[in-house]
Amino acid sequence: MGFIKDTIKSFKPIDIAIWSSSVIAIILAFILTHSTDYITLTTSLIGATSLIFIAKGNVIGQIICVGFSIFYGVVSYYNRYYGEMITYLCMSLPIEVASIVTWIRNPSKSGHSEVKVNTVRGKEYGLLCLLSVTITAAFFFILRALNTNELIVSTVSVTTSFVAAYLTMRRSEFYGLAYGANDIVLIVLWSISTYKNIQYLPMVICFVIFLVNDVYGFVNWKRAKHLQFEKSQEADTAPTDTTLDETPPADV
User: How far apart are CA 106 and CA 146, in angstroms?
Assistant: First the structure.
């Protein structure tokens, strides 16, 4: 019950406004395009909901994101975006499960249902770059062999998705910027599909909304990191109880 209360208290009017606007925009796009693709609609709504929780540093967002990865993998399969399907089902999904574990193990001390923001050091960024290059090269040949639509864009999406998922798992505020880059790539990718079939417009709207949410997430995490640091400093410098018993110790 305490976790639920902290979750509710942590949401501010701006959070509710962003989520509500996201849901309304997705539903309107679905209605205006006379779409009957309810899987795409469901995927978009799940994604928008997960992102507002992630922006708050709440582990519920990672749990919901598992569902998004599954639905998004299905939508990508039907569009022959095999890169997206493999990325989200075989890479993002396992990392999201790992993120749930790391987030639960590293709560902040702010009194809210908020993860402790981590600082990723230089050497780890070097490792991340090496892993990203290796994964990108491997996926390029895999996706080409599968005759993936929009091969180059799909390959770039793999790179940005991996970097974003890794930084999310490591609890870095820069996850928002990485996912923002991924959102831009996916806006391009799904715009191509929308040009061929207007029913995919909700997916374009979805990732435009994702971009807004991820930028907001970055700003929110930077603020949370600063506040967590200040509270940590206050705890370290807080005076300890040095009151001594007035009765002198007995001689031994």
Answer: 40
